[in-house]
Amino acid sequence: MTSLPWARLARRTHFSCGHRYYSPQMSEEENRKTFGLCYSEHGHGHNYVLEAYLLGPIDPVTGMVINLMQVDEILKKVTSELDHRHLNFDVPAFAEQVPTTENIARYCYGRVLEELNQLQSPVQLSSVRLYENEDLWVDYGQL
Amino acid sequence: MTSLPWARLARRTHFSCGHRYYSPQMSEEENRKTFGLCYSEHGHGHNYVLEAYLLGPIDPVTGMVINLMQVDEILKKVTSELDHRHLNFDVPAFAEQVPTTENIARYCYGRVLEELNQLQSPVQLSSVRLYENEDLWVDYGQL
Amino acid sequence: MTSLPWARLARRTHFSCGHRYYSPQMSEEENRKTFGLCYSEHGHGHNYVLEAYLLGPIDPVTGMVINLMQVDEILKKVTSELDHRHLNFDVPAFAEQVPTTENIARYCYGRVLEELNQLQSPVQLSSVRLYENEDLWVDYGQL
Amino acid sequence: MTSLPWARLARRTHFSCGHRYYSPQMSEEENRKTFGLCYSEHGHGHNYVLEAYLLGPIDPVTGMVINLMQVDEILKKVTSELDHRHLNFDVPAFAEQVPTTENIARYCYGRVLEELNQLQSPVQLSSVRLYENEDLWVDYGQL
Amino acid sequence: MTSLPWARLARRTHFSCGHRYYSPQMSEEENRKTFGLCYSEHGHGHNYVLEAYLLGPIDPVTGMVINLMQVDEILKKVTSELDHRHLNFDVPAFAEQVPTTENIARYCYGRVLEELNQLQSPVQLSSVRLYENEDLWVDYGQL
Amino acid sequence: MTSLPWARLARRTHFSCGHRYYSPQMSEEENRKTFGLCYSEHGHGHNYVLEAYLLGPIDPVTGMVINLMQVDEILKKVTSELDHRHLNFDVPAFAEQVPTTENIARYCYGRVLEELNQLQSPVQLSSVRLYENEDLWVDYGQL
Question: pTM for this one?
Fold first, then answer.
């Protein structure tokens, strides 16, 4: 019986944003009912935590799935576009979609993947996890 | 090459219980040997943490896998039947099975699923995680 | 040699806000230099954690410094005026002062004290602690 | 201008108990009203965290305020009398007083002090902190 | 439609090590460039956290996937070979491979599996997780 | 009755070191007995957490006790002299004293104070806290 070893590196980083839940496709009343406190006009905000999960073989010389400096460079690039911004106003992607934890996770997955594809590395982005707070988070990936 | 996106929302909640490990199917001696300190006659207790993992498509209008208010209502219902109770005495399910972390996790999975099935939502309960403390937890699901 | 016993109860609660660092008493350039990323026009936000520290004798009958239900009622009142708001726009106190961690801590101390004074309890508010994130916080009190 | 250096070592440990809030000096109705869910007949329980704060000079040879092995021995002794017990039934001190966080903190302070006094060490127990959960704790000391 | 229940128990433990990143298969310059601060000659160290994930049926009598005392015995054995050691000097396995989080995770997986195989238990080691710090970890398993 | 307001800002940062407990003033046998596992020849290491507590009036214009950028610059300077080093070999201060949590805390207090004194700020360093791990820490200050 053979066995297939796998290793997955995870890296965690932080950023803080303002946001407001509001969909132009719904009436004011529907928005209020659907989003509750998150519909509050001037927005509020959170300390987000982003985790990236990277799957791949362990390099026999360096002992690494991917060099952490590369991961940190990518995550720095991705989060600096969000950090200390108000998502609805300052980040074009959220002009058209509600900045829910789900949508921000999907956005981060796409951005990390984009940056990762520019490296010539056998590593695969298996998923990202985005925490809005310690009691709420979303995992997003593509099979 | 196509890709299948997936998103999984996780929600965390807390409750506190008393419990005692004792199986009527074993002798006193076997109980003592198997359960150690947890066999202590009048029971002890824990701050439990329950996490529910919900898998589904992201609604293009609301940006949500499921409305968090619905999740919170379900989890409130499920945990209020356990919170500040002594599991062996106060919760019928644990009259017949030992209230181990494994069994409480299975119980919570069943109760969350029961409540979730009454909503008309495309969301799927992929698993629950139950922490007895920060160093011990159980994931329970059904494939 | 006599000894003076003391007991101090601490209660922790959470709220989320948007805010922006901007002082009308400084030029745009001074604001940018002083506040860095926090000067960002549309604001950003945080998950705040507020802790109230209450000092007093332990009641010999109830075994309590103060009934936790009273503390929770006060903290609920104080934080619900801030939760899911944009401090600069939605909370009058921060129309005139920069919503820094220091100023929000002072504001919370004042509000908790105000509410506490309406109870007839021998308990004393020794200080409050306000976390902007896990790496930055302010203790505020009055001697 | 002279300065007085001080150093304070803190050690953290864990134990789990069952307990029930009930005072024989109050009517059933008063108990229910005062203690709410904690009045629940068969009790519930918590993962307690106990921290001991020890103040003293740093020994110039060992670089220590007190040897950690001594601290751990004391805390092991104190917590093993509580761990996996139901406080109301199994710990005599709580036959006569309600096992609130305040009273358990006072009890732990007394027990740690008792054990510490048997060592010939210049160290002083400045206070103990007892967490019932991450949102509620009590500091207890004697001036 | 049938459903396949599964339960997975997780246990968390701590150990502290010194280590240095250095590969004899690379030049000094390549080592410095690849490993950055971790190449520092005399090494540095971390508080590692090891989690073992054990999959199996819940025993209908004991309510357990595996007896926690057995798990703790195994983890104690595995971590005591690493705790308070300098991995490069004191642990033979890391004489030949760089003690990266990836390699330490693989090593721990192998050692836990080895010990587990000596028990007659239906439980399966699905993976281990090793944290170097709260912002970096590796999951390792075999399919 | 007048009241004296006070505000104290706390900033938390991380660094990782190797160290070994060994005092040339004690015999090998005394060292082994006093320091236990920490006496291990090649050393081990930890993820340290350093917190600096800064006391002062809140500036009425900026709303700050001290500008966080200044604090971060100081802490960066102090911790970069320790981070990823082996304290006994790489940091002169620990050639002559055992790198216990107590001594490292005292060292950090001195270094932060030194850097702080070069700024013209009314702020006062009330103490530092150094965590060796989440269960052990030392507060150090000067009255």
Answer: 0.96
